[in-house]
Write a structure and sequence with these properties.
Elements lengths: L1 H23 L1 H14 L8 H21 L6 H25 L1 H37 L6 H29 L1 H5 L2
């Protein structure tokens, strides 16, 4: 639980930093966001069911990899959370100038209320794995295999279902909200 709270604080701070950076560097931020949107533009032409699958698989794979890469002393999960927070903050700043902050929040919150905690849970498991490896390096008795097993169980029991529902909401609900 403490790993989750630490990563939540890091996420919120990096979101704030991303938002502030985009506010102060609007030209650079618009180019940055445009590149992000271009990289996912292939999804627009797909049928909704494939969009759902792409979103779910993308989030599930990245969360899992980030969790397992926590074995590298917990660095990757922290960087993953920082990067995602920064991008969400920057995108929110740029898009809110065009459609307003309220609409951005309405488009983010329905799926983000599940997706963000799911990613933070996966990354928390990764951070816990990193601490276990660090403790092992320090000579403490730690069962790394057991920690990996526990992390995978949490991932399958909580993260996957949350990401599944979040992908459904992002595919079918968010587009309706964006038309308001």
């Amino acid at each position: 639980m403490k790993e989750f709270m630490v990563l939540l604080a890091i996420f919120l701070l990096s979101t704030y930093i991303g938002y502030q950076w985009a506010e102060k560097n609007s030209g650079q931020a618009e180019v940055f966001i445009e590149q992000i949107f271009k990289s996912v533009s292939f999804v627009k032409g797909l049928p909704h069911v494939l969009i759902f699958v792409v979103i779910f698989i993308n989030n599930a794979v990245k969360s899992f990899i980030s969790m397992i890469m926590g074995l590298a002393f917990g660095v990757v999960p922290i960087l993953f959370v920082v990067m995602n927070g920064f991008i969400i903050g920057a995108v929110s700043a740029v898009v809110s100038k065009k459609v307003g902050l309220l609409k951005v929040l309405l488009m983010l919150i329905p799926h983000g209320i599940l997706e963000i905690p799911a990613v933070l849970i996966a990354c928390s498991c990764g951070l816990k794995l990193g601490v276990a490896v660090l403790n092992r390096v320090r000579g403490r008795s730690v069962n790394i295999k057991l920690e990996i097993k526990r992390s995978v169980e949490v991932y399958l029991r909580y993260v996957v279902p949350m990401l599944l529902v979040a992908a459904f909401i992002e595919t079918y609900v968010t587009p309706l909200i964006s038309q308001i």
